[in-house]
Amino acid sequence: MAQSTIERLEAVIAERRKASADSSYVAKLTARGRQRIAQKIGEEAVETVIAAIQGDAKGVVGESADLIFHLLVLLADMGLGWSDVLAELDAREGTSGITEKLSRPQE
Ligand SMILES: N=c1c2ncn([C@@H]3O[C@H](COP(=O)(O)OP(=O)(O)OP(=O)(O)O)[C@@H](O)[C@H]3O)c2ncn1[C@@H]1O[C@H](COP(=O)(O)O)[C@@H](O)[C@H]1O
């Protein structure tokens, strides 16, 4: 099966975690610790929110990419992966009242 963009990026992040901090952003950020990685997620989330409020669609796309990238770095640092997040979302499928309402046949 073809790898998704997220899966390819996860593999790159896993590899770059082992690189030298001089040659890799992932290695440099990882060396600074989980608190700093988490802080970067907060910063990127705020930048996404600001772009959204400004109606800056290109900005939202760029900041969302930064946000998801940093989230993947955090998941890797915690021994987790995107598949864990997808499994959680799958488990929630059909549990929301809104989803049930939307999927119920019209009377
Ligand atoms: N997708 C990304 C990616 N998105 C954002 N960034 C980096 O995230 C940083 C965010 O910018 P900021 O201005 O907020 O932060 P900064 O001032 O550079 O750094 P801080 O000291 O503030 O943490 C920038 O340095 C970007 O280069 C990324 N760095 C790497 N990747 C991917 O990760 C791969 C491995 O990268 P290296 O680890 O550098 O080899 C690359 O091939 C890319 O595919």
UniProtKB/TrEMBL annotation:
GO terms for cellular component: cytoplasm. Keywords: Amino-acid biosynthesis, ATP-binding, Cytoplasm, Histidine biosynthesis, Hydrolase, Nucleotide-binding. Pfam families: PRA-PH. It catalyses: 1-(5-phospho-beta-D-ribosyl)-ATP + H2O = 1-(5-phospho-beta-D-ribosyl)-5'-AMP + diphosphate + H(+). GO terms for molecular function: ATP binding; phosphoribosyl-ATP diphosphatase activity. It is found in: Cytoplasm. Its EC number is 3.6.1.31. HAMAP family: HisE. PANTHER family: HISTIDINE BIOSYNTHESIS BIFUNCTIONAL PROTEIN, HISTIDINE BIOSYNTHESIS BIFUNCTIONAL PROTEIN HISIE. Belongs to the PRA-PH family. This is Phosphoribosyl-ATP pyrophosphatase. It comes from Blastomonas natatoria.
